[in-house]
Structure formats: C-alpha cells, structure tokens
Amino acid sequence: MDFPKTPSFRLDEKRALVAGASSGIGLACAAALAEHGAAVTLSARREDKLEEAATAMKDKGWQVETMPLDVADIDATGAAVDAAEPYDVLLNAAGLARHSPAKETRADDFDAVMGVNLRGAYFLAQAVARKLIAADRKGSIITISSQMGHVGGQDRAVYCASKHAVEGFTKAMAIEWGPAGVRINTICPTFVLTDLTRPTFDNPERRAWIEEKIKLGRAGEVEDIMGAAVYLASDASALVTGTALLIDGGWTAD
C-alpha cells in the first residue's frame, strides 16, 4: 500500500529575512528557521545585538548574516529589501507597545505604535512580496501579530487597533498575492515571557488577569512559537494563507 508523503518542514535553499531578530520571539524564530536549513538574515535596530546573535548562530554551523534596519523607516527598509536577492520567507517580529487607558492615549504614542506594528509591517510585507512576484518565485510572509488582534485588553486600545489592522491587511494581501504563490499569515501569541514583557508579569494584578484568561494555566514561552514559524515557512503549510495561527493557550476560546 502506498501512503501520502508528509511534506517537508526543512527550509534548505530558502532565504529568510527575520525582522525584530535581536531578542525575544524574533530571535527564537530566527534560530528555528536556521536550524531547519534556511539562510537567515537577522534584522533589527540594535546592530550590536544582531552581531552577537549572528556570531552565536554561526558557531552552530547555521547560515546567517545581518542587516540593521528600523521597519518604521519604510524608505530605508524598502531600499534594503529591493537591493537584496528575493527572500523566500519573511518573518516580521518587530513590534512596539505603549499601553495606557484609552482616554489617556497620547497622539505620539499612537503614531509610534502604528508606525511599527501597522505601517512598518505593511510596507515590509509589500517590499518582500514585490521582489518575489517580480522574480516569479513563491514565498511565505509571516507577521507576529497577537491574540490582541482578535480580542480586546486592558489599557491596550492602541495595541489592539494595530494588531486588528494587521489581521485585516493579511487577509486582503492573501487574496491579491495567492495567484502568484505568495502566502501571507500571522502568528498570534498570548502573553509570552520575555525581557520586554517582564514588567507586565511583575505586576501581580496583571499576572493574575493573564493566568486566569489562559486556559492551559501558564504564560507562553518563546519555544511555543518556534514550531509555528517553521510550519508556516515550510512546504508543510503550502495551502495555508490569509489565516491566523493562534498560540494563546485557549485565551480566545470563549
């Protein structure tokens, strides 16, 4: 009896650009892609952190280079992507959060969050897709969104607005780029313990709220996101586009 063959999760001969790769989820996902054979370009604002990560990854025998960029600077980012060979995979983990009650939102905080989470993400996806389509190559674009792209949260009106918008443009781009073989999806984690989120977990009231909402009873770790990144980057997800992969411990189940 012949059985179907499971599609490969390997990423050999694929080029991957990881934005927000200097720490946290972005760095973890970059390691996951490299471990599975991709040639990874690490991108973020902090050049020293990128070089530190690249050195450690090269010590493991992985293919890696760096490209310092601020995704909020869409002209510089677009030019850098345009000057490079097409990327088969984009994983955009660059993000910004400035939380406050909605009635106290400052315009500069609103603009800063939208500049990275929405405007930066939109035009980075556009730049990578343009190169792929011009080269007649298939590819996978992945944005680290959030469970907050599907629900609301305390003091998070601006952040939620930015992530809901990411979910919207992902669906629209999937419709436009599907015929060219360019897939686009989001990964939507719950609260993941990183250096950036530690102040939230250090607040007893916030931590209690988080733990009560997560049905599996624990916060996320970066390792919880890595397998999803490999799946969406690989041929194993060849028919997946325009969708959100929720890694939220059941937060949005009710």
Offer a quick outline of the entry:
This protein is α/β, with parallel strands linked by helices. Helix content is 43%, strand content 14%.
CATH class value: Alpha Beta
What is the rounded distance between the termini?
43 Å
Structural Rg: 18 Å
What is the H level of CATH, i.e. the homologous superfamily? Answer: NAD(P)-binding Rossmann-like Domain
Strand order of the largest sheet: 3-2-1-4-5-6-7
Q: What is the ordering of alpha helices and beta strands?
A: EHEHEHEHEHEHHHE
Structural class label: alpha/beta
The number of distinct β-strands equals: 7
User: How many helical elements?
Assistant: 8
Question: Would you give an account of this structure?
Answer:
The structure is a single chain. The chain is of the alpha/beta class. It has one domain (15-247): Rossmann fold (3-Layer(aba) Sandwich). It has helices spanning 24-35, 47-59, 74-83, 107-134, 157-177, 198-201, 204-213, 223-233; strands spanning 15-19, 39-43, 64-66, 89-92, 139-144, 182-189, 244-247. It is globular, with a radius of gyration of 18 Å. Helix content is 43%, strand content 14%. The chain has a seven-stranded parallel β-sheet with strand order 3-2-1-4-5-6-7, with helices on both faces.
